[in-house]
Design goal:
mainly alpha; 191 residues
């Protein structure tokens, strides 16, 4: 086994998130919900935007968002209601197992990021946590636009979980926007 075999294994494991669906949406009646990876990708984009507006580090925030659900390769995506009945292993323990064979710099980067996200104390972690909830709200708005009227609870709970003023203000803009309005926006020629 080479030094990079553990990193390769971690990357292969992370690929499960491309196939694993966000299970909470099944409760809302969404037949083919987004994958965990799809959620994490837009959460990273959302986190970058929030961090830019909040004066936090956008790159660090995006990294926290990309990694925040990686423990779900081992425990799955437990919907909110499931947390009332299950005691899942903490993300830091799962990530320690996931990265046990990784080179120290890789393992340290991932473990530190998960610990930072879970602690929620840095500006970047706060933006990442808000991005996680705001992305859920955005997805719910899109599902609602597609005709699913059962997502109101997801919108309300996501909105209630936001901590930063910027995230709350951005959420209001999303709620008032036409999800396809971006299609009409064109850059104005300069000069």
């Amino acid at each position: 086994m080479t030094e990079l075999a553990g990193a390769a294994g971690y990357l292969l494991e992370a690929g499960l998130l491309k196939r694993a669906r966000r299970s909470g949406w099944w409760i809302a009646g969404i037949r083919d919900p987004e994958s965990i990876a799809e959620h994490s990708w837009r959460a990273a984009l959302t986190g970058m935007v929030l961090a830019s507006l909040e004066g936090a580090d956008p790159a660090r925030t995006a990294m926290l968002c990309i990694l925040h659900d990686t423990p779900e390769t081992r425990i799955g995506d437990i919907p909110k209601i499931g947390h009332h009945y299950l005691d899942a292993t903490d993300p830091e323990t799962i990530v320690a197992d996931q990265t046990a064979e990784c080179p120290d710099p890789v393992a340290g980067t991932i473990r530190d990021a998960i610990a930072e996200f879970e602690a929620g104390e840095t500006a970047e972690a706060q933006c990442a946590k808000d991005a996680d909830k705001l992305e859920c709200l955005i997805q719910a708005v899109e599902y609602r636009q597609q005709g699913d009227a059962t997502v109101g609870r997801w919108i309300d709970s996501s909105l209630a979980a936001l901590k930063t003023d910027t995230a709350r203000e951005l959420a209001q803009e999303v709620l008032e926007a036409n999800p396809l309005a971006w299609e009409q926006v064109r850059a104005r020629p300069s000069g």
